[in-house]
Amino acid sequence: MSRAVIAGRMLDAPAPGKTDLEEAALLIDQSGTIIERAGRGTPQFDMLLRSPDVRKLDARSLLIPGLVDLHIHAPQWPQIGTALDLPLERWLGEYTFPLEARYEDIAFAEAVYDDLVPALLAQGTTTALYFTTIHEDASLALARSCLKYGQRGFVGLVAMDNAALCPETYRHASPEAAIDATRRFIEAVRKLPGNETGLVQPVITPRFIPACSDALLRGLGELARETGVRVQTHASESDWEHECVRTRFGCTDVEALDTFGLLRQHTVLAHAGFTNADDRERIRKRQSAIAHCPISNAFFAGAVLPVRHLIDEGTACGLGTDISGGYSPSIFENARQAVIAARMLTSGVNPDTAPGKRGSPGLEIDFAEAFWLATRGGAEALGVPTGLLRPGMKLDALELRMDIGMSFPEGPDCAANAVQKIVCHAGLHSVTRVWVDGKIVDVHGRGKQP
Ligand code: GUN
Ligand code: FE
């Protein structure tokens, strides 16, 4: 790849609630890194536009950073929109574990993952933090699909060994078996042909505390320290799950994970709706992060994560689809649901309650904050140089078509107007082109590629 220039209107969110919209040109180097940005009206902008490799965006298009899905279960893709009326513990036992057990069949795994990855890219998800299953070969198939389609993938082989919760046909035989498998998987992902730039990274993935023995949690904490590999898990997701941990350890999920050495820089905790202020302080101290999954939380958590507190305190946070606890593969959809959930938390929802007592005032988030969570928030949580259209960042970006229903008023509030349109309305239909690591990716004809 030689140096290239992209010019047109671009929008990004450098901080929560702060958005920037301008006509600019980006110079991208051979490695896909943005090395220069020049705004219209500067001599440098005019010079970049004269470059032989310039790609000028249509006047109605808008370039935005790629979306980050901070929590998704790849094997649950065939099950989106299924059995969401069940509580988490029954949904896991009756639907999810039996489905995930099928990934012993590598052909099944390849077919699902080769369908999922381009579908996510077409939705604008340029980076995904995945849970897979306990199967090493099938999990490597997901890593290969990410490389094949060019998605930035963080892939975690699921570790689970607790016979009291996990079926005999779907669990590791012992803590040692799960730790050895995780170690082999880390090596295998790092050595995958085509992964020389590290576009796909392994992740240490204890499913959640209830599914893991103490020895497994301790062993994975040690493995994380030894290898420096990122960690992901579920934490404080529902009353049932939170109570399991309290009964077993007499403390919160976050405290227990910290004791086992699993709360580290860029550890991502999915859900975390039942964390308290002390938990969040601990998360910040360890430089860990939370994946907010608003759709899934509406079904399984029975509570709304107060993202307002996270943003105000500086607790790292991004958005997750939690497929298939969440039914939608779209991070745009989860961004709008994050805004809606926070508004309902603020106002309260029971009309039989007096207005002054109905809600928890002051917990709303705005559209610009949701946009930040979907882009830069997720990238910061993972520690990847993406999520902004600025020098030093890798070019992970989407071209959105903003015509007719997506048009927005110009003027002083132009950026705020554009962000609200995007969070409310963007989706598969508006994503016209996708770049990851500076390259336009092939999304199998599903992303309306040129
Ligand atoms: N907790 C443990 N496993 C899962 C899962 O697959 N989905 C959700 N939402 N929560 C979990
Ligand atoms: Fe999950």
Q: Can you tell me about this structure?
A:
This protein has 450 residues and is an alpha/beta fold. It has 2 domains: 4-65 and 388-441, Urease, subunit C, domain 1; 67-382, Alpha-Beta Barrel (TIM Barrel). Helix content is 39%, strand content 21%. It is built from 15 helices and 16 strands. The chain has helices at 43-49, 88-101, 106-122, 136-149, 175-191, 214-227, 239-249, 253-259, 277-285, 294-301, 307-313, 331-347, 355-358, 367-382, 414-425, and strands spanning 4-15, 18-28, 34-39, 54-56, 61-65, 67-73, 125-131, 152-159, 200-206, 232-235, 268-271, 289-292, 316-319, 397-401, 431-436, 439-440. The strands form 4 sheets. A 4-stranded mixed sheet has the order 3-2-1-4. Strands 5-14-15-16 form a 4-stranded antiparallel sheet, with no helix packed on it. Strands 6-7-8-9 form a 4-stranded parallel sheet, sandwiched between helices. A hairpin with a 5-residue loop joins strand 2 (18-28) and strand 3 (34-39). Helix 3 (106-122) runs parallel beside helix 4 and helix 12 (331-347) crosses helix 15 (414-425). The longest helix has 17 residues, at 106-122. It starts with a strand and ends in a 10-residue tail after the last strand. The site of guanine has 12 residues, from helix 2 and helix 10. Fe (iii) ion is lined by residues 71, 73, 234, 270, 322, 325.
Quick one: CATH superfamily of the largest domain?
Answer: Metal-dependent hydrolases
Main sheet overview: 4 strands, mixed
> Largest beta sheet: what is the strand line-up?
3-2-1-4
CATH architecture of the largest domain: Alpha-Beta Barrel
Number of strands: 16
What is the percentage of strand-forming residues?
15-25%
Parts with pLDDT < 50 across at least 5 consecutive residues: none
CATH topology of the largest domain: TIM Barrel
Say which molecules are bound, naming each kind only once.
guanine, fe (iii) ion
- The gross shape turns out to be globular
